[in-house]
Amino acid sequence: MRNALVSASGIIVNSADTGRALERFAREERLPAPPQLVAHLGIQPAGSGGGAPLQAKPYFLSIGTIEGRKNHKLLLDAWDKLRVQLGADTPDLVLVGQRGWMAEETFARLDASPAEHGRIVELARCSDAELDAWICHARALLMPSKVEGYGLPVFEAMLRGTPVIAADLAIYREIAGGVPLLLDPDDAPAWADAARDYLHDCPDRLRQKAAMEKTITTGWADHMALVDSWLSDLGAKGPETALETVRN
User: What whole-number distance in Å separates Cα of residue 146 and Cα of residue 68?
Assistant: First the structure.
């Protein structure tokens, strides 16, 4: 990032929230801040509707590398509470993502003896078609991250009509238009309560389903048209065309 700030003619950021973070970093490091373009990431159209569910039992889904900032520990805490409340009716929790770093406690809990109810299903890999099916048939996508640069799975879920329960972060308020249910990423009881409610078609889940029918998402063609126009303007301002892209 230091090299980008001192050498780039411009910087493309995936969100205004990322851009603000980069500007803060530049001020702290006493480095120049090149011109920025906020270009939200494109999203592929949904597939065939997910096909048949990959399992019969209701489940919630979380997508992302299992690492410290993704805050899977909160979900495990919430599921401990759900098992006490719901017993055999506890839904499964499906985690799609490889194991990463700074999450040793979470790894140890995932490796412990499986619970009798409310299984934790860990999928390090799955195909695009399988992921489409997991998203389409989930009761909700869960995104409890402490920090996110974008959070593309939120759009992937919304495009398929799957409700989202996410951490109350500026990025989700920016990109998701008030659709997801936003919760404190440190409040495991609140996440357990929300999952219990979303196990059924509670009023807020129905609100999300209705709101998502009006959601407008950015396609890759729109993304690239914005980028191409900005690059042309940037190139017209001088001979330098070096570009750094800030991504999640």
Answer: 9
- Rounded distance between C-alpha atoms, residue 180 and residue 155, angstroms: 10
Q: Which CA distances in Å does 63 have to 102, 132, 142, 144?
A: 17, 12, 8, 10
Mean pLDDT of 11-23: 95
Q: Using the predicted structure, report yes or no on whether residue 216 has a pLDDT greater than 80.
A: no
Q: Residue 178: CB partners within 8 Å, gap ≥ 6?
A: 211
> Cα separations (Å) of 171 from 21, 135, 204?
11, 21, 21
Supply the DSSP symbol for 41: P
pLDDT, average across residues 164-179: 94
> Burial code of 122-161, b = ≥16 C-beta within 10 A, e = fewer?
bbeebeeeebbbbbbbbbbbbbbbeebbbbbbbbbbbbbb
The dihedral through the CA atoms of 185, 44, 93, 97 has a sign that is: negative
Confidence label for 46 from pLDDT (cuts 50, 70 and 90): low
On whether the pTM is more than 0.85, the answer is yes
The rounded distance, in Å, linking the Cα atoms of 150 and 135 is 18
All structural domains of the chain: 2-42+219-246 (no CATH), 59-212 (3.40.50.2000)
What whole-number distance in Å separates Cα of residue 44 and Cα of residue 219? 7
Identify the weakest region by mean pLDDT among 86-95, 178-187, 234-243: 234-243
Between CA 87 and CA 91 the distance in angstroms is 9
Longest pairwise C-alpha distance within the chain: 66
Segments in 41-113 forming alpha helices (H)? 72-86, 104-111
